[in-house]
Design brief:
single chain, alpha/beta, 8-stranded mixed sheet, 7-stranded antiparallel sheet, about 40% helix, binds adenosine-5'-diphosphate, binds aspartic acid, binds magnesium ion
């Protein structure tokens, strides 16, 4: 079995849903098809929830009307029969009726907010399933809320997911296509919850890992993982092969094409992940697996909204136990640390979740001196296979960055990652100069020396 995930733009227009069906028909394997919400829907639903939370019910109601109008016209082109259209209208009326009833609940709590946000995937999957039924394909809709579970720390419970999903799949041995929602899940309080923005990729990987799929395919609007952020850098190109480790670093450090945790379950269960372009299905895309071609430097990514905390030990020399005390505080506040650098009496760390920043710094001050935090920082991450020629790589990176102030450097923790902390105002410049130096400089030099 394979798992194919289609993102927001891949389901965002009725003709795109038609193309997904065509794509499914080109491949004979049985598939679980994970869908995101139609592009723009999750943002719109979040805005509706925010209006409801602020008791701006008239605004929430207007936004619901606008979003519903979008779906009303969407189905007119999705379906070609009266019966199909009537079924689609019933789905929309039901779900939007539910959204309206949620907005009316006061006080409006995070539980209702999450239920509203989940509607995007609930709508897209039901409408797509309706279309497959209309054209007579062998398909069934599996509600993700019946098997996708997270624990009290918001971590997916792979074993539980496996157990529930295996039992549910056994009830549909004859269905060729099994459609389900990305992104949404249930928490231990049995409430509707989600896997954070972009979470449908993670759903696909969790399902692929749980059923030990032959392959997980992530279908999006670009021909695979590029060597740099194509939204910021002009000359980028798709990478044909990445190892799980390289892809995990890129996703974690900001390559938006994948949710940061996508690779974890696939790697754990050894399921290859292929990134493909819905608009250009013949393009090879990117294959993520145990092995990859051995080009040294593969790609660059940038992670936004980073805060750096600079901590000095007040005990000065030989302060053993100091790091343990520092990290216990981050653990207490469930705040992951991304980068760390140390000197004899100081340690600097970065975090991207500053929800508990004040409490963390207050506790650190009980035994350490703190410099003022730097917010609005950016981690620039160079990823590749650095097992050979280490000095050469660091040299090229630092040479490219010679005009950009660097706040921290992290290198050597793995053979796949060199990270630099800079102020976010230099992000675009850093991505561009690194791109030129790491991917085009040698070719340019060759041209110069071989020119007649
Ligand atoms: P989907 O809605 O299908 O999940 P996303 O918008 O989440 O799609 O991800 C695809 C987008 O990720 C691309 O359109 C591209 O702009 C952006 N992106 C950022 N960095 C990269 C990268 N290194 N390689 C490819 N795409 C990237
Ligand atoms: N619809 C969700 C989002 O926009 C999940 C996803 O698209 O992956 O974040
Ligand atoms: Mg995405």
């Amino acid at each position: 079995m394979q798992v194919w995930k289609f993102g927001g733009t891949s389901v965002g227009k009725p003709e795109r849903m038609h193309s997904i069906r065509e794509l499914l028909l080109t491949d004979p394997s049985r598939k679980i098809v994970v869908l995101s919400a139609l592009s723009g829907s999750t943002n719109a639903l979040i805005a509706i929830g925010e209006a409801a939370k602020a008791n701006e019910d008239a605004s929430a109601s207007k936004q619901i009307d606008d979003l519903k109008a979008h779906y009303d016209s969407f189905i007119k082109e999705l379906y070609s029969t009266e019966a199909g259209l009537a079924k689609g209208q019933e789905i929309i009326d039901n779900e939007f009726g539910f959204i309206r009833s949620l907005v009316g609940i006061k006080p409006f709590a995070s539980k209702q907010e999450k239920e509203i946000v989940a509607e995007g995937e609930l709508l897209s999957t039901q409408l797509f399933q309706g279309y497959l039924e209309e054209v007579g394909d062998s398909a069934v809709l599996l509600p993700a809320l019946e098997f996708m579970r997270i624990d009290a720390d918001n971590e997916p419970e792979l074993e539980k997911i496996e157990e529930k999903l295996t039992a549910i799949l056994a009830q549909h041995p004859d269905k060729q296509t099994i459609v389900t929602q990305g992104f949404i899940c249930r928490n231990p309080r049995e409430e509707v919850d989600n896997l954070k923005r972009g979470g449908s990729d993670y759903t696909a990987s969790l399902i692929g890992g749980a059923i030990r799929a032959e392959e997980i395919q992530i279908w999006t609007d670009i021909d695979g993982m590029h060597n740099n952020d194509p939204r910021i850098v002009k000359r980028t190109f798709p990478i044909r092969e990445l190892t799980f480790e390289e892809a995990a670093e890129l996703a974690y450090f900001g390559a938006k094409i994948l949710h940061p945790s996508t690779i974890t379950p696939a790697k754990l269960r050894g399921v290859p992940v292929r990134l493909k372009n819905t608009m250009q299905p013949e393009a090879p895309g990117t294959l993520i697996a145990n092995q990859s071609s051995d080009r040294e430097i593969k790609a660059i990514a940038a992670k936004d909204n980073i805060t750096a905390i600079y901590i000095h030990s007040t005990r000065m020399l030989n302060a053993y136990g100091f790091l343990r005390r520092v990290f216990e505080i981050f653990e207490k506040y469930k705040t992951p640390v991304d980068m760390i650098t140390t000197s004899e009496v100081s340690v600097s760390v970065t975090i991207d979740n500053s929800e508990h920043l004040e409490a963390i710094t207050a506790e650190l001050r009980e035994f350490a001196d703190l410099e003022e935090n730097d917010s609005d920082q950016n981690i620039i991450c160079v990823v590749g296979n650095f097992s050979a020629d280490k000095e050469g790589i660091a040299l090229k990176v630092l040479e490219a960055m010679k005009n950009i102030p660097i706040r921290m450097i992290s290198y050597g923790a793995s053979e796949h990652n060199l990270s630099l902390l800079i102020h976010s105002k230099y992000k675009a410049e850093a991505l561009n100069v690194l791109n030129e130096r790491l991917f085009y400089y040698e070719d340019a030099m060759k041209d110069i020396f071989t020119a007649p």
